[in-house]
Specification:
The chain folds into three domains: 148 residues, no CATH class; 56 residues, no CATH class; 73 residues, no CATH class. The protein is 46% helix and 11% strand. The longest helix has 22 residues. InterPro entries: 2-thiour_desulf, DUF1722, UCP037004.
């Protein structure tokens, strides 16, 4: 078990706490039983923490999607201000929690990240809203990885989110070590191929930014780098983009690999691109060649081991 776990915020009901309006929970076993081996959770229940109690009347969002009201469904009490006042205070506290991400409860009027029902004046719902707390959280932490538990059941979205929280942890550790152009060049070198897999456009922009780093104020450089890397990692690493990186990796062995080894690796990469193999298959073979031929540059590439292999995030075809 990792000694220095990733600190991850999460809706308390997803962790098994009986805090929903009817005293139930929505325990998500993937979060607690699998991801929990690498994560220390910071539970948050907006309704209970702002004083609404258990059990409580159900609520929903009404009105303007940009500025919805939180209304109880039976007695029609407007609890918006109570929620917002608490959220502003709680968000200040969360700034000191060293979070690397947050998992929200889907469809919740307080914590839904997207597609939350908002009722119009005729009582008709449209799935166009954001939960009040979730919306304020994302404004307060615009670069923090966030996701909903329902979307984490999708293998591609799960891999992307978990990769991002591990990356954010490495970035925070880098910042704790102090800012310097040399250290930023090292961090970028380690992550170049990871960025390429998500966005060749951002990969090129990040490389240009670092190469011209001496022309910038150090704080401005770091802020621009963090913004670009965050944008890059939000984009999903597709089979086509991963295959491009795999061929790029293959190029480092052009003098060492035999003709048969090159042919085998090409076949495996193409089978992966077509959806016949999961990504872990070509990655395992390339990691074998990295060790066999002692490739020092590739040994430091985070792309080859961006998260614990035990999580099996690259095992889906």
């Amino acid at each position: 078990m990792p000694a220095n776990k990733i600190r991850l915020g999460a809706s308390a009901c997803l962790l098994g706490e009986p805090v929903r309006y009817d005293g139930s929970h929505k325990h998500d076993r993937y979060l607690t039983d699998i991801l929990g081996a690498y994560v220390e959770f910071v539970p948050v229940c907006p309704e209970v923490e702002c004083g609404m109690g258990i059990p409580r009347e159900s609520m929903h969002l009404e009105g303007d999607p940009e500025n919805p009201r939180l209304i109880t469904t039976r007695t029609r009490r407007d609890l918006t201000e109570q929620m917002v006042r608490w959220a502003q205070k709680r968000l200040e506290e969360l700034k000191g929690e060293n979070l690397c991400g947050f998992v929200f409860k889907s469809n919740s009027p307080s914590s839904g990240m997207e597609r939350v029902k908002i009722f119009d004046t005729k009582g008709m719902p449209r799935k166009i809203g954001v939960g009040i707390f979730a919306g304020l959280f994302m404004k307060a932490f615009p670069r923090l990885p966030v996701e909903e538990e329902g979307r984490l059941h999708d293998a591609v979205l799960r891999e992307n989110f978990v990769e991002r929280i591990f990356h954010f942890k490495r970035w925070k550790e880098h910042l704790e070590g102090g800012r310097s152009l040399g250290r930023l060049v090292d961090f970028h070198t380690d992550h170049k191929l990871l960025y390429m897999a998500h966005s060749p456009k951002h990969y090129r922009a990040l490389g240009k930014l670092v190469a011209e780093g001496r022309k910038m104020d150090l704080r401005e450089l770091y802020d621009a780098y963090e913004g670009l890397m965050t944008e890059a990692l939000k984009l999903k690493a597709t089979a086509a983009k991963n295959a491009n990186v795999l061929y790029h990796l293959m190029g480092y062995f052009k003098k060492q690999l035999t003709a048969d080894e090159k042919a085998e690796l090409r076949e495996i990469i193409e089978a992966y691109r077509k959806g016949l193999y999961p990504l872990i298959v070509p990655i395992t073979l390339i990691n074998h060649f990295v060790r066999k031929y002692d490739q020092p540059y590739l040994k430091r590439q985070v792309y080859l081991n961006p998260h614990p292999v035990e999580l099996k995030l690259r095992n889906h075809a």
